[in-house]
Specification:
By secondary structure, this protein is of the alpha+beta class. It is built from 22 helices and 23 strands. It has an eight-stranded mixed β-sheet with strand order 3-6-5-4-7-10-9-8.
Length: 699
Amino acid sequence: MASEEELFASVDALLNEEPHLPPPAERARLREAAGITQARLATALKTTTQSVKNWENGRSEPKPPRLDAYQRLLNGWAAKYPAPGAAPAVSAVATAPAASAEPAASEAARADAPQPVDVPGGGPTRPATRSAATSRRPASARPAADPRFPHGPLVVLDGDGCAYGVDGIVLDCPAATVVELVEWTLRESGLGAPRLHRNGKDSDPLIVLTAAAAVKLGLPERLEGHEQRRSLRLPEDHPVVKQVVKAKWRLTQRGFGPWARIYRKVQGRERQCVQLAILSWDALDERSWPGVAQMEPADVARVLGTYAQRVITPRGSTAVSGLELMTALRPPTRAVRDEASGNWVPGHNPGSLGTEPMDPAPPEATPEHPVVVDSGWTGGFLNEEAYQWVRDVSLLSDEECTLPYAVGLDLNTAFLAAAARLVVGLSAPDHFRAPAFNPKIPGSWLVDLSHVEVDPRLPSPFTPDGTRPTGPAWYQTHTVAYAQELGYNVAPLEGYLRRETGAYLDPWHDRLKNAYVDTLADLGVTKDLSDAEFLAVMERHKDTDPAMAAVLAAIKATVKGGIGKLRERPQGRKYKEGERWPALQRPTWRPDIRAAVISKARINMHRKLRNMATMTGLYPLAVLSDCVVYPSPGDSPLDFLPYAASGKPQPGAFRLGPTPGLAKLEGVQTMLWAVDLMEQGYNPARHIKGGDAVLDEGE
């Protein structure tokens, strides 16, 4: 069975300058086609190996057509231009799909040689003029996953012209201006990342500039002004901005700031776009990327490169990246055939949010939204937010007050866990009067839940502050369904419901869950640990590898920020109520999807609180979003969590573990400390790990 190396050697043999081959012009054309085909065939061989194995084993999956097309093409060359010794190798192409990958050393060597570089977006390839000497790749480096992007998704450029990439590679960048840097990136760097979905787009290359690199390119070391530095931009008359415009490059509407995108209009299928991130302009927020801006360039490249490979190439804040990931995994369009012309044109991709923004129902909008202001809506709004609840001190029993400790539990990425298998609306809302409640229909329901009785030692599941509803209010489907689960009748008065539905966030959840679990495993926190071992490892996991700890923090911030961006509010002092703000132009401005995630997360929390009370007789002191504080006889969660006689955790209650939805220790304080805060009206869950949890998490 032919390996990739043998396959490429066969094609090269076919195109060698032998007497029996076509004239030089024809040979040149074939070589160019072979270069493109070799790169694409390498990707096809790698990405379809399992599919072919399944087909060969007699499963229902069809044989990959794309790979067959390349096989037929190469076989055709072999038949038309036979070369000595080439026929056996090329004929073996027919059985090559399941071939093992070539040795890592040979692939790494080929990646270091000059190769065609594909412009992000799937456009025509252009030969890289970079010589092999400009890439300094360690012998142990992992080979590039995509031959079009041999040097990974990004580099960090220092003031000496060294560009540090993933897996320890170092490129020599001769650029002395921003324009030269853009040209070098697109033509010579070999940077970029393949699309995450077959209907999506490849990720544009990212160049991260250190302070020294920024100064060398003519940029100020820091941006100063009255606003937050992340919001500042270079003025339009700055020499670098003029230089970019003069070279017929463009900047996006957000201008030349900490995250600048420089691009030209798409020509055919060719995409020309480079993302810049400037470290000294606070491109990396300390709360989302703790300590990264102060790291050495090679370490910054390791952190951002790992994030790019596991999540997405950063395009801005972690919140922006979280939103971009949704679109990358659910592209709005796909190629469809136009029956009239026979051409392939962009068409709606089922399961996506489409290309056009969609106005929410009035109760789902914010008070300043045009659908509210223009209609004079006064019917109330959804209030699906995370818990901020503290139990009334008068409801503490004497037994609880005599317990020595207050222990905080934190649910891992609670919003991410809530996004799993979450059915949301994909179409515009329709208004209904007195609809019969259906828990399978996503939407907003006006219903009176004030009659639902809940133990006063638990928060109400229907309000963020845990107080009992006093009359009709708007709720998301999951909240109303929970009232039914508790055994109460619900009779909606109105509803804004969506007919087209789907699990839009499923691939987003899956990719971020894998990234979270894999990064925790890099820090020594694995699924096979016992609960005691898990607590011990979690206590010191951030010290194991600061770079991976920063990646973990960024992944968590991506989850929260991405969900928050679904209802981005207007920004800036000049905004007037009733005006449309830029975020409303995005199809991903979907406050109803945000409400669905938060509603499900809050209901999941209340269900665990109720089960804990049933199994252990313990009631929480306070809840803040995904953190809950319990009185405890000991200073560990092992002292109060319910376990079966076999030692296994009881299902339905809080469980310790490294996956989304499971719990970890947030902090431990004395019971006296917690009661004192409660008496002063403060939330112990906010402060139990020291500091302010809300501010520490960037909320």
